[in-house]
Design brief:
By secondary structure, the chain is mainly α. The protein has helices at 15-38, 45-68, 70-73, 90-107, 112-137, 158-163, 171-190, 198-214, 231-253, 255-273; strands spanning 4-8, 11-14.
């Protein structure tokens, strides 16, 4: 676990920034592959990756500052932009990235739900790789395990400054691993008949469940804000309900068009193969 990979003069090359950048690049590449395979809108994917990636970073930072740690940043406004210290809320990143994607799609008259279905696996893949960045940086860490097992972070990390040399639950590691599972489940789901919008809805539901459960092991932002739930758990409950509603709505709204759209897509692929 290394926060600093190497230095160029006095300028540090941080593992967090490098892996986070790679997560955006690789997620964009996978999204391009999926869109190319589907036969629609692949020419927009790189632009979307850049726009949504930047929007996601801004959203993740602002969400963390204002919803998780404003008591601190309210008195340290100059540190709001110190993203290399950690403090990026993935839920805010997804929200801002999705909003940016919707604006872009509407501008170019792209079917928002259909595009979201195509790139949903790429989004969760980017999240999984992003958790690797958290591990290397020593943030998004777990609470003390109370035993001899767990992760002991280096003295330079926020995790160590918070809990010292106590072994902590590998919350960010398990979340990254479960994100890879969601990635596989979404690919499997897309291979079977489904209504437009349901793949993206399923992504939101699965991730909300994962985040809700792992919050019980988190040690960075564990203070309850609603009943006995943390900010992330409260957000997970809300997003799960909204995604489930969208999943059911799409199943009813687009049920009759599903088979027609899949048949058209298959014919389109066959024409391109000739």
């Amino acid at each position: 676990m290394h926060q600093y990979l190497f230095f160029i003069g006095d300028f540090p090359i941080r593992a967090y920034g490098l892996v986070l950048s790679l997560s955006i690049i690789l997620a964009t590449g996978v999204a391009y592959f999926l869109a190319k395979q589907d036969g629609r809108w692949h020419e927009h994917i790189v632009n979307l990756g850049i726009i949504c990636g930047i929007s996601g970073i801004i959203g993740a930072r602002l969400w963390d500052v204002f919803f998780f740690d404003f008591a601190y940043y309210g008195n340290h406004l100059n540190e709001i932009f110190y993203v290399w210290q950690g403090g990026m809320a993935i839920q805010g990143g997804v929200l801002f990235g999705v909003i940016a994607g919707i604006i872009y799609a509407r501008h170019y008259k792209i079917d928002v739900l259909a595009l979201a279905d195509i790139i949903a696996p790429a989004i969760i893949l980017g999240q999984a790789l992003g958790r690797c960045a958290n591990l290397l940086n020593g943030d998004a860490f777990g609470a003390p395990t109370g035993g001899s097992f767990g992760i002991i972070y280096p003295v330079t990390t926020l995790a160590y400054k918070t809990y010292g040399n106590q072994p902590l639950w590998p919350a960010e590691v398990w979340e990254g691993q479960l994100d890879f599972v969601i990635f596989a489940l979404l690919l499997i789901f897309r291979a079977f008949p489904h209504a437009k919008g349901q793949a993206f809805s399923l992504y939101i539901m699965l991730y909300s469940l994962v985040r809700f459960g792992l919050e019980f092991l988190r040690g960075d932002y564990a203070h309850p804000v609603f009943l006995s739930f943390t900010s992330a758990q409260t957000t997970s409950i809300i997003t799960f309900i909204l995604a489930l509603s969208l999943f059911i709505y799409c199943g009813v709204k687009f049920k009759d068009n599903n088979q027609t759209n899949q048949t058209s897509s298959i014919k389109s692929k066959r024409r391109r193969g000739k």
